[in-house]
Amino acid sequence: ICSYYIIPVVRGSADYSSIAPPHSYINVEDFKTPEELANYLIYLDKNDTAYMEYFSWKKDHILMNRFGWLNHATSFCSLCHKLHSDKREKIYYNLTEWFLREAQCNKDLNRHTIPSSS
């Protein structure tokens, strides 16, 4: 999400300042009432300068994950795709049948397993 021009609206007791860049999110707890929060969000929607201030951190910060550079397309694009797809949940009554015939995994499992000692 941080790679896009989306401002996360967060709620809860987490210390967001320790995990997110400064001025990169809106914490519900910073507002006295839901109406105050709604008015602020409407203000941001109508004021491009104020909205873009939430992304000034991008000039001084680099996003990384535990593996190195953040691949922003992977998780966010996947979420977006799932939200916009009509794909329905599937139920597999025979897991063996599904695994052997339909699963999109490596079919040659014997090459990657270690024989158990007798």
Automatic annotation (TrEMBL):
Membrane topology according to the record: Single-pass type II membrane protein
Single GO cellular component term: Golgi cisterna membrane
Enzyme Commission number, as recorded: 2.4.1.-
Major localization class: Golgi
Gene3D superfamilies from the UniProt entry: Glycosyl transferase family 10, C-terminal domain (3.40.50.11660)
UniProt-annotated location(s): Golgi apparatus membrane; Golgi apparatus, Golgi stack membrane
MF terms in GO: fucosyltransferase activity
Domain Fucosyltransferase C-terminal: 4-98
The protein's annotated pathway: Protein modification; protein glycosylation
Broadest EC class assigned to this enzyme: transferase
Top-level division of the source organism's lineage: Eukaryota
Keywords for the protein's UniProt record, in alphabetical order: Glycosyltransferase, Golgi apparatus, Membrane, Transferase, Transmembrane
Family classification: Belongs to the glycosyltransferase 10 family.
Protein name: Fucosyltransferase
